[in-house]
Write a structure and sequence with these properties.
Helix 9 crosses helix 11. With about 290 residues, the chain is mostly helical. It has one domain.
Length: about 290
């Protein structure tokens, strides 16, 4: 990968990480009234309206092959967000996002070819055990939702690359978000009547930052980088999540949780960096 492309992808993913975690913090404030599941769906619905208005996608110009990737992207996106919101309702934001990061992290482990790369997997697993241990006070149901979100996140990383390389990728992402909103409609439609002005405003802000800005950045970065490099850059999310959780949500983490997070993020970043470096050497990139 060329240096310019690497810098652009890194900068784009940093914006994505900050936007995503800001969105999570905003959404968390709506759980008391809307609940995590309706909040996730309503955020998607608001984002779908925004993105379709901005990009004006034309479904007639999408090929059957492209539709397959877009539909899969939308479904994975919907399930990932539902699980993640259940996780952040039960866990500190930094811990939930770290478990979510295990998805692209695991993808990097699966794609690993050298023993040094594969040795990072046990380190990440040990980190999860530390975070889920009794000493960290972590809700195991929340851990389960976080791991499920991570599984979907792995699919998201792969599909983001495919959709990001399509013609007019942002309009394709808008279609995927619309599919995610439609797929979850039965879960959020009834909650519309229970929203007040403050909750609606928070969800719209969360939709803008966490979906419109974040998913657009993901698609742009995915068009310039490999799945392994994207997995590495997603390692920014847990760090930003921990900072946002501590700063705006006043969430504190004990030593075991912090060490566990560091082990998961460190292992994921290490294996992705080694794979990206190996790919760059093999293709003559810098």
């Amino acid at each position: 990968m060329r240096l310019r492309s690497h810098v652009e992808s890194s900068s784009t993913m940093l914006v994505s990480a900050v936007s995503t975690q800001t969105s999570s913090a905003l959404s968390l404030q709506t759980f008391g009234r809307a609940g995590p599941v309706p909040a996730s769906g309503l955020r998607m619905a608001g984002a779908a309206v925004m993105m379709c208005a901005l990009t004006r996608p034309d479904p007639r110009r999408v090929t059957v092959r492209e539709w397959r990737a877009i539909i899969a992207f939308g479904v994975v996106m919907a399930v990932m967000n539902l699980c993640l919101y259940q996780a952040i309702d039960r866990l500190a934001l930094g811990v939930a996002v770290t478990l979510d990061f295990l998805g692209p992290c695991s993808l990097a482990f699966v794609l690993a070819k050298r023993w040094r790369e594969r040795c990072c997997a046990p380190i990440a697993l040990a980190g999860v055990v530390l975070m889920a241990g009794q000493g960290s006070g972590v809700d195991l149901v929340g851990v389960g939702f976080g791991l499920a979100a991570g599984l979907c996140f792995a699919g998201y990383a792969v599909l983001a690359e495919r959709v990001g390389r399509q013609h007019q990728p942002l309009s394709r992402v808008a279609l995927a978000v619309a599919i995610a909103a439609a797929a979850t409609a039965p879960l959020w439609f009834r909650a519309l009547g229970e929203l007040n002005v403050r909750t609606a405003a928070l969800l719209l802000a969360a939709a803008f930052f966490g979906v419109v800005v974040s998913y657009t950045c993901d698609a742009v970065a995915a068009a310039r980088a490999s799945a392994a490099m994207i997995a590495l850059l997603f390692g920014l999310d847990p760090v930003v999540g921990a900072v946002v959780g501590a700063t705006f949500l006043h969430q504190s983490l004990d030593v075991l949780a912090i060490v566990g997070m560091a082990m998961v993020v460190g292992a994921g970043v290490a294996v992705s960096w080694m794979m990206a470096a190996r790919t760059a050497v093999g293709t003559g990139g810098r």
